[in-house]
Design goal:
about 210 residues, mainly alpha, Endonuclease III, domain 1, Endonuclease Iii, domain 2, 11 helices, about 55% helix, about 0% strand, binds iron/sulfur cluster
């Protein structure tokens, strides 16, 4: 399955535009309930103004909210960005930490965000970032019956070798966007159409359905 996905897609390590670990951390926080495209519209100005943790802390909450408002839930995102920058400054000398434990201890940073940062910025395979696309595609393909992202991640981690964990997020997202789409899956175009347990081609029901 991974061989097929790798042949089909050559996704970047992250669909978000970033240059430094702090960029990627902030962009990933902004991407919650927001499209990558919209985040990528907002971050050029934000990253031009803020290159370091100290730069974020120098912005007023109101100014930060103004810069990120089109990413949705901007008040809570601005609050968490300020809180996590304070903690990064106080406990990590302004640097983004490189372990799952330290990252998930930061305000507003969950396992998914930590997985994306660890793989994207540091090349570390510590887990599989399960977003809405990964969740749906994994369940449709019968790789997990998990009802939560955490459960689906655990099932995927058991099935796939650790060295593949980081890139699986982008591969599954690519497949979820191109073919195995949310509303109308395009099974007739899918490389898995004969074997997939949710394939419309063989008359199966959608295992990702509720
Ligand atoms: S066959 Fe259909 S349901 Fe299965 S992975 Fe492909 S597009 Fe998704």
């Amino acid at each position: 399955m991974l061989r097929s996905l790798k042949r089909l897609y050559h996704p970047p390590k992250s669909f978000l535009h970033w240059a430094t670990p702090i960029d990627l951390l902030i962009a990933t926080i902004l991407s919650a309930r927001c499209t990558d495209v919209q985040v990528n519209r907002v971050t050029p100005e934000l990253f031009r103004r803020c290159r370091t943790v100290q730069d974020y802390l120098a912005l007023s909450r109101r100014e930060l909210e103004r810069l990120i408002h089109s990413c949705g839930t901007f008040r809570s995102k601005a609050k968490y960005i300020h809180l996590l920058c304070k903690k990064l400054k106080k406990e990590h000398g302004g640097a983004v930490p490189r372990t799952m434990e330290e990252l998930t201890a930061l305000p507003g940073v969950g396992r998914k965000t930590a997985c994306i940062v660890l793989y994207g910025a540091f090349g570390k395979n510590e887990g599989i970032a399960v977003d809405t696309h990964v969740f749906r595609v994994a369940r449709r393909l019968g790789l997990s019956k998990g009802k939560t992202p955490q459960r689906v991640e655990q099932d995927l981690m058991k099935l796939f070798p650790r060295k593949e964990w980081g890139r699986m997020n982008a591969l599954f997202i690519s497949h979820g966007r191109a073919v195995c789409t949310g509303q109308r899956r395009k099974c007739e175009q899918c490389v898995f159409r004969r074997k997939c347990p949710s394939s419309l081609v063989t008359g199966k029901r959608d295992l990702a359905g509720r």
